[in-house]
Every structure is written in C-alpha cells, then in structure tokens.
Amino acid sequence: MVKPASSARAPILLIEDTLTLQMAYRSILASAGHRVSTAGTGAEGLAQFRALRPKVVLLDLILPDRDGLHLMREMLEIQPETAIVAITANGSVNRAVEAMRAGAHDFLVKPFDETRLLGAVQYATSAPATPMAVQPESSFLADGSGFIGSSAPMQRVHVTIGSVARSMATVFITGESGTGKELCALAVHANSARASGPFIALNCGAIPQDLLESEVFGHMKGSFTGAISDKPGAAAAADGGTLFLDEICEMAPALQTKLLRFLQTSTVQPVGATRPRRVDVRIVCATNRDPMEAVRRGDFREDLYYRLYVVPVHMPPLRDRGQDVIEIAEAALMRFSLEEGRSFLGFSPDVRSLLSTLPWPGNVRQLLNVIRNVVVLNPGGWVTRDMLPPGLADVRTGGPAALPPTGGAAVAVTDSLVGLTLAEAERRLIEITLARHAGSVPKAARVLDVSPSTLYRKIETWKALPD
Length: 467
Hints:
Helices cover 45% and strands 13% of the residues. By secondary structure, the protein is α/β, with parallel strands linked by helices. The chain folds into 4 domains: 12-126, 3-Layer(aba) Sandwich (Rossmann fold); 152-314, Rossmann fold (3-Layer(aba) Sandwich); 322-400, Helicase, Ruva Protein, domain 3 (Orthogonal Bundle); 404-464, Orthogonal Bundle (Arc Repressor Mutant, subunit A). It is elongated, with a radius of gyration of 27 Å.
C-alpha cells in the first residue's frame, strides 16, 4: 500500500490535455496523499514547471500545442534531476521507447489502472534510482530503426552509412549471424534518396535454387510447371528503391551470371519473357561468410564479387561493442515491456555486469531472445540474476559444450577423415557435427560457419544419391 505523502512535499506536476483523464489521475493521486498541480497544454505545463520545480512530472507525450518529447527535453535541461513519467497511448510503443532513451524515468501506456499509476509515482519519488541509460542521439540514424550503438565500432558503421547512403554505390555488408546486417541495409535505404521507394529483402540461402531465378527476376505465366500467372520478381518489385540480397554467397553459380548481367545492364528478363525490362534499383547485399574465401573456393564469381564489393560495411560482433550490450538490452527491455504489458524498472548491477562480460555467440539476436525470455516469464521490477534463462551465466566461460574437441577426441575425428576424398571428408565432418548437436541443423551450421540452408541442401543431395 502506498503511504500518504507529506503535505510539505513538492507537488507532482500532471500535464494532460484530456480533461476527464486529468481529473481522474488527480483524484487518484490526491487520495494517496500527493499534492498535484495540473496543466492542459505544453505552454502551461512549462510555466508551472519553472514556478514549482517539481521532483516528479507526469507528462502526456501528445499535447495540443507542442511535442511532448521536446517539452520533456527542455524540462530536463532546466532541472536534470526531475523524474519524468511519460504517458503514451496504447500502440505508441516507439514513442515510449524514444522517451526512455531521451531521459524519461518511467512510462505509462494508456489505459493503465490505479495501481500502475501509484506504483510509477512511488518509484519516481522514493529513491534517486538511476533511470535507464539515455541513448545518445548521435548514435542513431535518421531512419529511427533502433540501430543502436554508441561504441567506436558502431560509430564507424554510422559514419560509413551516412557517407554512402545518398549515393548509388552498391553496399556489401559482412558480419556474423545475428549482428544486424538487415538493419544495416534498412538504415542505408532509409537514409537515402530512395527512402520513399520499396525495400525488398530476399534471402538467397532460404530459397530453393530452382526457384531462385524466378524469385529474383520473375516469370511469365506458363513458363514452367506451376507458373499459373505472371510474377514480377524481387528486382522489378524494388524498382525505384532498394533490393537487399541476404546470404549472397549462397547464390547458385548460374544465377550469379544473370545477376552480373543485371548489374551491368540494369535490365531484368523474367523466365519465359522475350524482352528485358529496365529497372532502377540500388543493390545492398550481405553475407555471414568471408566473401573473398568464397571466391578462392570457386563458390562465388570473382567478377561479381568486385562488382558488388564497392563500399564494404562490417557489422562488428556484439562481444566487440563494449557497453552497446547494455544500451541494446535496456532499449529491448522497454520495448518488450510495453508489448507484453509488463513494468520493468531496469537491470540490477550484477545483471548489468554479467551481460557486459558474456561472449554472446549469437550476437544481438541472442541478446534480444534473452531479454524477451525475461519479460515474458517475469511480472516486472528490477531484472535480477535469477530471472535470466538457466545456464546463461555458464556461457561466460564457454561451457563444456562450447569447447572444441581436444586430445583423443580431436585425434579420432582427424583420423576418421584420413584417406577420404574432399567431398567425403566434408560430408563426414558435417555428419559428426550434426551428431554432436543432436541433429540440429542450425546449431551445426553455426559451428561450421555456414548458413543452415547450405546444410539442408547438402543433406537433400546426399539423400538423392544411390546407396
């Protein structure tokens, strides 16, 4: 139960333009012993803020005369220690997250009940708890995609994107799985002159090779069995915008030749069509492999590589990004809390320390899954160590399963490959890796540093071979 406030306590400033809600909130707070001063516009609220210098402000982000975020920033410039509780409508998740990054102490999503309102006010008045870390605006791009990171490696990524976005140059993004390569591609698109055009993403490793040409360049009705209607294809669909080709190194050699011709002529010819069509498309591609190694192995055309590898952008692994881990975790905690209807206050010091020291082999994707797990399985409050998924702390040292085979095991694996052809050795290594991970193709693919689709294709090929 909330204790009544002392009459000597500074009043709470409530800025809410809907009169009925203003009266309801004021009544609830007054019943709990709080003194409340109210305002219905940004101008009136700022005037009262300057006069009263309240410790706590309840601020609706949608006001009739000015933007609530701008007002909040102005108040924090005047009195940085103010605890501002941002109020936003249901569905305005991005606004609430943006407010937290800009310095809000807590948030309320309409409609909220009496307990949630009083809890937020008690949290704001009871202790000088450090609010969630404020995300420097300089670390964000204009697209607002949540491309978070103020570390030196990410600042270099931001600078590169800012320089190349408005050109027509092809961007080649590299990085481990889960580092945010598609977000990077979206940032390039959103900061370009093509931002109002389409952004079409195509995963070259997730589409069967016999259908990939149709997916990229389209097909005409009747051009092959199952082609019951005309299909434009990704390249035509991206006309006037950006075509993002993910896992580009998984593209079949025959289609690489057609892609090279497309890049040289800016024309597409759907399967079964008699004439090519000119399109205006900017290409962004990505891979989690070393593209030069793929060229050396003969998996990727050298001329296509040099055609695509104009402006390289490397997405750094999360383990090399320092305190970006905490920035991403805090932003994710706020977003998932809003989506799941939870009320989390932040991370305890030992959890922050643990998150900063883990190696995060799955990078940002793994971190987001961990935070989602915490939010879904817990009611709220401060995130403590016991809320984290079981076994997460063991990852800090790699854990027994993460260690490569050593000693006799390593010798046994090596001996089993001696005398085999290269193709046979590859198959044997894949089979051993699958067995070590209980047949999980995604886990084996991560260990072997290839895409899961590559393993699935190889397995299907082996099944088709005679015994």
